[in-house]
Amino acid sequence: MADLPDEMKDRYGLNRSPAKIIGYLLVAFAVVIAAVAIAMQFIGRGPTIELHNTGHTVQSNSAVLITYTVHGEAGVELECSATAVNDDFAEVGAKEWTWTMEKDTETRALTLATSERAASGSIEYCSRVP
After folding, report:
1. Where are the bilayer-spanning segments (predicted)?
2. Which pLDDT belongs to residue 15?
């Protein structure tokens, strides 16, 4: 095969220069690293919990009704926190509780007791119980 011209060796893959081999190895290595990075984004993650405050209604000088929606996964236990504030943004009510989602998306309401008339109320967070 030594009598073949160089262009024939290139065409049929017989020209195995070290630079080409290193180039192919670098490309293969980059593909493997990219695949591992993408897989790491999905391995070991639990369901994502999304909280959306949908509204609040001041019921009296001592209570505010807060409505919210949580998107997640049925059977996941959550820890949540709610606060109510007055016109000066001072906290006038707070509560923490845990509950288990029965459906993937749940809309709930919470009546939060306050020490004085609240201007607003919201659910601060809902996160998975470890």
Report:
1. 21-43
2. 64
- Secondary structure of 71-125 as H, E, C letters: ECCCCCEEEEEEEEECCCCCEEEEEEEEEECCCCEEEEEEEEECCCCCCEEEEEE
Check whether residue 121 and residue 103 sit in a common domain: yes
- For residues 96 and 36, membership in a common domain is answered with no
Give how many domains the chain has, as a whole number: 2
- Whether 109 shows a pLDDT value over 70: the answer reads yes
pLDDT at 14: 67
Query: Per-residue confidence at 23, pLDDT binned at 50, 70, 90?
Result: confident
Cβ atoms of 62 and 114 closer than 8 Å: yes
Residues 6+ apart with CB under 8 A from 121: 56, 64, 65, 66, 82, 83, 84, 85, 93, 112, 114
Q: Evaluate whether residue 29 is within a structural domain.
A: yes
113 falls within a domain: yes
State the Cα angle at 53 between 48 and 54, rounded to 5°.
125
